[in-house]
Amino acid sequence: METLVLSAILVLTVALTALLSVSVVAEEGEKVLTLDHSNFSEVVAKNDFIVVEFYAPWCGHCKAFSPEYEKAALLLSSHDPPIVLAKVDANEEANLGLATEFEIQIFPTIKIVRKGGKNIQEYKGPREADGIVGYLKKQAGPSSSEIKSKEDAGGLIDEKNIFIAGVFPKFAGEEFENFTALAEKLRSDYDFGHTLDAKLLPRGESVQRPTLRLLKPFDGLLVDFQDFQVDAMEKFIEEASIPIVTIFDDNPINHPYVNKFFENPNAKAMLFVNFSKELDSFQSTYKDIAKQSKETGISFLLGDLEASERAFEFFGLKEDQVPLLVIQKPDGEKYLKANIEPAQIAPWLKDYLNGQVKPFIKSEPIPEVNDEPVKVVVTDSLQDVVFNSGKNVLLEFYLPWCGHCKELAQILDEVAVSFANDSDIMIAKLDATANDIPSGTFEVHGYPTMYFRSANGDVKQYEGKQTKEDIIDFIQKNRDKSAQADSAEPESAKSETEYSNSAKDEL
């Protein structure tokens, strides 16, 4: 799941004098600043608050977002002070250092950069212009707003969203300072307010001591907490802001909670049903089971079949398996029960907890014909093709729609052709959207990722440049030398120096 959820974007204009002073030139009519490796640090250092979108020119989500971002930049240019929106082409090789520094793995990713780069947060707001403007105006203001009246509370608190209020006898002391630090840390996730009088808040009783009150649109509507250690408050908010059962459907109100569901570290139980036909028969039973399972380390989600197409694609599931219960452990291992009935949920969950359910492994069919230069590997053939083949194997994990992966595919074809006469070398690829990646041996956090397994069993991640020459040199340096000596004398069995020189000539 893009969980499955993609990041969003940045803030706008600097005055003309500021633009000139840092030698940044925006195209005619554009309000979003274009940054790159040459001016990024200088521009960021001059701004206490700037929003930066990291994008790729080929990314469809980026293209759709661009006009909304530009509209928002225009509207925010008149803010006092102006809110600066900027963008960086993270696909450009010269900017890869910035992409690495900011841990960019998907496009677009938007970062809010404060205090000249000292404080960096994810943008987690809307993706249409008005929503971007509203979200960023809040982010540019104080992290927590004082509530002096019920009118203040009404203007700040949206009863459809989570709101975190601090109630204090005075705005001083350790509790208030820790609350302020927490609000600054979590401001991109939640709205905060502070007050001297709990009666001004729309829900809850008066309190006699400093209290953190979390207002929410589900499961009891509010919960109080009185441990003002920052770590304790953060853990409390993380747990209290996830519903007992998260609803996954087309209603945008539920989307923030779905994001939090997939971000939390628990095992995840996901029940997919057809809401128009089966919701009533499953919902109450499933919620009761979720309440009784708080100590099991499992979070629960109820998903509508119509909204779950991407989830089904990600998990390798089929619609004819619905009603379908899936559990995914933190290490990625999955378990499923297809065509489940409400009365079967609790017994099956008990069997899972007792270790009596076998894991489900997603794999494409093993290809009947596999005669292209780069061999296709699927989960079910991984053991035979990579681990038991006796070959030196370079294996790429890729996404079919990933632009970087598409560029690398052409290079790997050339590498594979170069080793066509070397029976000890195999270049292979695995589609990570259609196959599970075994945990432990391969750690894949972005795409494309390449690993090399030598014939003698050594496994090493390839982290060099994505060029034919560099990949060939890496393979020659890391291949099993004994296998190389036993092989015939193909083109690729030349000495490393000779091979390197011939590869350079070809390029």
From TrEMBL:
<keyword id="KW-1015">Disulfide bond</keyword>
<dbReference type="Pfam" id="PF00085">
    <property type="entry name" value="Thioredoxin"/>
</dbReference>
<feature type="region of interest" description="Disordered">
    <location>
        <begin position="478"/>
        <end position="507"/>
    </location>
</feature>
<keyword id="KW-0676">Redox-active center</keyword>
<dbReference type="GO" id="GO:0003756">
    <property type="term" value="F:protein disulfide isomerase activity"/>
</dbReference>
<dbReference type="InterPro" id="IPR036249">
    <property type="entry name" value="Thioredoxin-like_sf"/>
</dbReference>
<feature type="disulfide bond" description="Redox-active">
    <location>
        <begin position="402"/>
        <end position="405"/>
    </location>
</feature>
<keyword id="KW-0325">Glycoprotein</keyword>
<comment type="similarity">
    <text>Belongs to the protein disulfide isomerase family.</text>
</comment>
<dbReference type="InterPro" id="IPR013766">
    <property type="entry name" value="Thioredoxin_domain"/>
</dbReference>
<keyword id="KW-0256">Endoplasmic reticulum</keyword>
<keyword id="KW-0677">Repeat</keyword>
<dbReference type="InterPro" id="IPR017937">
    <property type="entry name" value="Thioredoxin_CS"/>
</dbReference>
<feature type="domain" description="Thioredoxin">
    <location>
        <begin position="352"/>
        <end position="480"/>
    </location>
</feature>
<dbReference type="InterPro" id="IPR005788">
    <property type="entry name" value="PDI_thioredoxin-like_dom"/>
</dbReference>
<dbReference type="InterPro" id="IPR005792">
    <property type="entry name" value="Prot_disulphide_isomerase"/>
</dbReference>
<feature type="disulfide bond" description="Redox-active">
    <location>
        <begin position="59"/>
        <end position="62"/>
    </location>
</feature>
<protein>
    <recommendedName>
        <fullName>Protein disulfide-isomerase</fullName>
        <ecNumber>5.3.4.1</ecNumber>
    </recommendedName>
</protein>
<dbReference type="Pfam" id="PF13848">
    <property type="entry name" value="Thioredoxin_6"/>
</dbReference>
<feature type="domain" description="Thioredoxin">
    <location>
        <begin position="13"/>
        <end position="141"/>
    </location>
</feature>
<keyword id="KW-0732">Signal</keyword>
<dbReference type="GO" id="GO:0005788">
    <property type="term" value="C:endoplasmic reticulum lumen"/>
</dbReference>
<dbReference type="GO" id="GO:0034976">
    <property type="term" value="P:response to endoplasmic reticulum stress"/>
</dbReference>
<feature type="compositionally biased region" description="Basic and acidic residues">
    <location>
        <begin position="491"/>
        <end position="507"/>
    </location>
</feature>
<feature type="signal peptide">
    <location>
        <begin position="1"/>
        <end position="26"/>
    </location>
</feature>
<dbReference type="GO" id="GO:0006457">
    <property type="term" value="P:protein folding"/>
</dbReference>
<keyword id="KW-0413">Isomerase</keyword>
